[in-house]
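Whiteboard transcription, Tuesday session. T.W. wrote the structure tokens on the left side:
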């Protein structure tokens, strides 16, 4: 279509406003802007979660250090009381269990024959 009495500036402005290619480009730009809002929101939420986890880990590390410091005197006390007697009770418990297992196996073997 040829415009006889209209300036070329007006024609290009009309094409810019009403041309299908320019409308498609405008829709794509608007769609891109609309899709960035949820991505920005999710990014902010994930950053907040990350910072919360780091703060929680830091507080847990501090608490672990405090508990380990509090455990040092208890370890010394346990050693003074007699760590050897605690080890001996563990050995006795294991020895007590072994005959029960053997008796159970023997009874299963004798019952199957």
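and on the right, the sequence the group agreed on:
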């Amino acid at each position: 279509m040829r415009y006889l009495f209209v300036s070329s500036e007006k024609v290009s402005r009309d094409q810019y406003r009403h041309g299908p290619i320019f409308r498609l480009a405008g829709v794509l730009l608007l769609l891109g802007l609309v899709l960035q809002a949820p991505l920005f929101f999710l990014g902010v939420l994930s950053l907040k979660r990350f910072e919360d986890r780091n703060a929680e880990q830091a507080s847990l590390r501090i608490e672990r250090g405090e508990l380990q410091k509090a455990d040092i005197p208890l370890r010394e006390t346990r050693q003074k009381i007699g760590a050897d007697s605690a080890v001996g009770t563990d050995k006795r418990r294991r020895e007590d269990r072994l005959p029960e297992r053997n008796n159970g196996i023997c009874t299963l073997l004798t019952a199957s024959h």
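Someone added at the bottom: Residues 20-112 form the longest helix (93 residues).
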